[in-house]
Design brief:
The protein has 7 helices and no strands. The chain is mainly alpha-helical and 168 residues long. It has a domain of 65 residues. Helix 1 packs across helix 3 and helix 4 packs antiparallel against helix 5. The longest helix is centred in the middle third of the chain and has 45 residues. The radius of gyration is 25 Å and the shape is rod-shaped.
């Protein structure tokens, strides 16, 4: 499967949009899977009217297309909730680090309690960095991999040393 950015406008959903806007009759899309991928990638910007107009050109029933978009929306709401909770954990861990730092500064060095507090601070800071990295790794937009998993399609695995990865 090609990347969505590589889909030519004359074979994709964009040609259907152009036909609908100009009033021309809509012919079936030559590559409906690519058009469906494009539609699902931008599901937040698709109206019900657009779905009914495009479904016939893609060869998909309106009900099935609507069901797919609703399922994607539900998954997005769940993912946004997970991101919100992770962001809350990040804030809590940050303030825990600040509190440990203040407690550590208040203790005299060389005391056993100072060593214990330093270890707590190091663990808390490590935990904070792990949460921050997890939060940074989560894509907050609909990726091609996300759509492929949703459609149960296997994307090709591109090795790190391939020319495609170097071009990006």
């Amino acid at each position: 499967m090609r990347k969505i950015s590589e889909i030519r406008p004359d074979t994709s959903l964009l040609s259907v949009v152009a036909c609908l806007e100009s009033g021309k009759t809509v012919k079936p899309v030559s590559k409906p899977q690519e058009a469906l991928t494009l539609l699902l990638k931008f599901y937040l910007f698709v109206s019900d009217d657009f779905i009914t107009r495009v479904a016939s050109a893609m060869g998909v029933s309106v009900e099935k297309l609507t069901t797919m978009l609703d399922k994607l929306y539900e998954l997005r709401v769940k993912r946004q909730e997970e991101l919100r909770q992770l962001k809350g954990q990040l804030h809590v861990q940050y303030y825990r680090c600040v509190a440990y730092q203040k407690q550590l500064e208040a203790l005299p060095t060389g005391v056993a309690q100072w060593e214990i507090m330093r270890d707590r601070l190091e663990r808390a800071h490590s935990h904070y960095n792990n949460i921050r990295q997890r939060f940074a790794d989560i894509k907050q937009t609909t990726s091609q991999q996300y759509i492929a998993e949703f459609m149960d399609i296997q994307l090709p695995n591109i090795p790190v040393s391939s020319p495609l990865s170097e071009a990006q």
